[in-house]
Amino acid sequence: MNIKNVSLFGILFAFVVIALGAWTRLVDAGLGCPDWPGCYGFVFFPTTEAEVALAEQRYPAFPYEIDKAIPEVVHRYFAAALGLLAIFIVYLTHRTEDKQNKRISIFLLIFICCQGLFGYLTVSLKLLPIIVTTHLFGGFITLSTFFYLYIKNSNFFKNFQIGHLKNLAMLALFVLVIQIFLGAWTSTNYASLACPDFPTCQGSFIPDMDFSAGFNLAQEVGPNYLYGLLDNEARVAIHYSHRITAIFLTIIFLILISKLWFSSAAPLASTLGIVLLTQISLGIMNVVYVLPLYIAIAHNLVAALLLLTTLYINMLAWKK
């Protein structure tokens, strides 16, 4: 095996982990196991009546629900497997003389270990929003690092001359990162359905909102933050911000697409346009159809795909 093939597998596997994380979050299974790394003190999760009774005796404040324990445990073990893959990449890179590969692989391994720490903190701090959001965001960084390794080791830099677009490409990436953060913040604060109508929100284009409460990064979690503690106006502020940023993002990306279309990278313009249109459509469908599970998961995955596409454009624009 070479670094290119293992990195490609890492990209695909990271997409699976992101999907599993979204599934866990969307079915409210973030505390499906109230302990870490085990589940109610078991390596996997309780299955027999005796094990369930023991589990509830150990954690009386968290009644056992197997439908929530399964997503949490599956997500944990897939994430752990991603860490093993990162160890293997470190081994592969240290058999070569490429110092940059070595540095990136070590960063990737350390970062995935940090992701494990944030997984622990997610449970121990009872779904504290800033911790959960950081953990979700970290999944996108992990995916992007695998992608960077793959592109770097596959000579995938086609003869596209788009150096004149590097500032615009960087701006698009910057706004996209903000938008992904807002999407994660919307999800972790249970604000996805705070605006149940479209294109209006709460029947108005400018609804009542509480931004100070909505973006209080040091908010309390109570006994736990399952289902959220914010009032409606705070959740509306979060959801509304995600929508407004999406408008700015779309404008910037349309400008970037038009510039790419009239350059040597016209195929990238088509790709970026299709991914962007798909993501916008999924976002609208989440509201109109009241957050269907598979559409919501797809919204996470296409956001990741949009990030990789934008990252690739930046790599081309800034290549030396």
Features:
mainly alpha, 320 residues, 2 domains
Q: How would you sum up this structure in a few lines?
A:
This protein has 320 residues and is an all-alpha fold.
Note the topology.
Layout lengths: L2 H24 L22 H10 L7 H28 L5 H26 L4 H24 L13 H23 L22 H4 L17 H30 L4 H23 L4 H25 L3
Helix pairs in contact: 1-3, 1-5, 1-10, 3-4, 4-5, 5-6, 5-10, 6-8, 6-10, 8-9, 9-10
Label the structural class. mainly alpha
Q: Helix count, per DSSP?
A: 10
Question: How much β-strand is present in the residues?
Answer: under 5%
Rounded radius of gyration (Å): 21 Å
What is the subunit organization of this protein? single chain
Distance between the termini: 29 Å
Q: Give the number of DSSP strands.
A: 0
Order of helices and strands: HHHHHHHHHH
What is the average of the pLDDT values?
94
Q: Point out poorly predicted stretches.
A: none
Dominant shape:
flat
Q: What profile does the largest beta sheet have? A: none
Helix content: 55-70%
